[in-house]
Amino acid sequence: MTEHAAQWTASTLADIRVGGWMCGAHWTFFFVHCDILVTAYACTACADQLLGHLIVERTDRVPDRAADVPVAFGDFDLFGYPIHELTEVLDPSDRKLLLSADVNPQSTHYLASVRLDACEGDHR
User: Fold this and answer.
1) Contact, 59 vs 106, CB < 8 A?
2) What is the per-residue DSSP string for 70-86?
3) From its phi and psi, is residue 48 left (phi > 0), alpha (psi between -120 and 50) or beta?
4) How far apart are the C-alpha atoms of 86 and 108, rounded to whole Å?
5) pLDDT tens profile 16-58
6) Which of 48, 26, 28 is CA-nearest to residue 38?
7) DSSP conformational letter for 65
8) In angstroms, what CA-CA distances link 8 with 16, 21, 35, 44, 104?
9) Which residues, including other chains, have CB under 8 Å from residue 47's CB and lie 6 or more apart?
10) Percent of the chain beyond pLDDT 90?
11) Running DSSP on this structure, what letter comes out for residue 48?
12) How high is the pLDDT of residue 8?
C-alpha cells in the first residue's frame, strides 16, 4: 500500500507521527497503540515506494508477560506466547518475519520486537 493508505489505516488505531529520518527510507511513520510501538516504512528497494516494512516493538524492553495487544502473524500471537513456545511452531524459512539475532529460542520471556518484511529488495 502507499504511504497515504498505510497512514490512513493506522490512524484508526492511534495518532500517527510522521517525520524523523531513517537511513535508506523513502518515507516512514510510527504510532503507539497500548504497549506496542509500530514503525512503518518504504526503503529504497521497495517497488514504487510502497509499504515494505513494519517494525513492531513492545514498550517493555524485556517483557516477562504477554502484551496487552495481540500482534498476529498467521495463526500466532507473536507477543502472546513465551519465546520457546513460538520458536517451536514458527517456520524458520519464512523470511517475511524476522526475529532478532539475539533471541534465545529456549527463553521463557516474551518477544520484545519483530520485523515484518514484504519488500524483496536486497537491502538486508
Assistant:
1) no
2) --EETTEETTTSBHHHH
3) left
4) 10
5) 998 777 888 999 999 999 889 999 999 999 999 999 999 999 9
6) 28
7) S
8) 9, 20, 21, 22, 36
9) 119
10) 52
11) G
12) 95
pTM: 0.82
pLDDT of residue 80: 94
Q: Which residues pair with 27 in a beta bridge?
A: 42
In terms of Cα–Cα distance, which of 119, 115, 117, 118 is closest to 37? 115
Closest CA to 78 of 94, 95, 90, 61: 90
> Cα dihedral sign for 68, 6, 78, 112?
negative
Flag whether pLDDT at 124 surpasses 80: no
Q: pLDDT value at position 75?
A: 85
Question: What's the CA angle centered on 119, arms 113 and 120, to 5 degrees?
Answer: 120
Q: By C-alpha distance, which of 6, 33, 4, 30 is closest to 16?
A: 30
Res 78 pLDDT > 70: yes
Phi and psi at residue 73, to the nearest 5°: -135, 105
- Can you tell me the distance from the alpha carbon of 102 to that of 99, in angstroms, rounded to the nearest whole number? 8
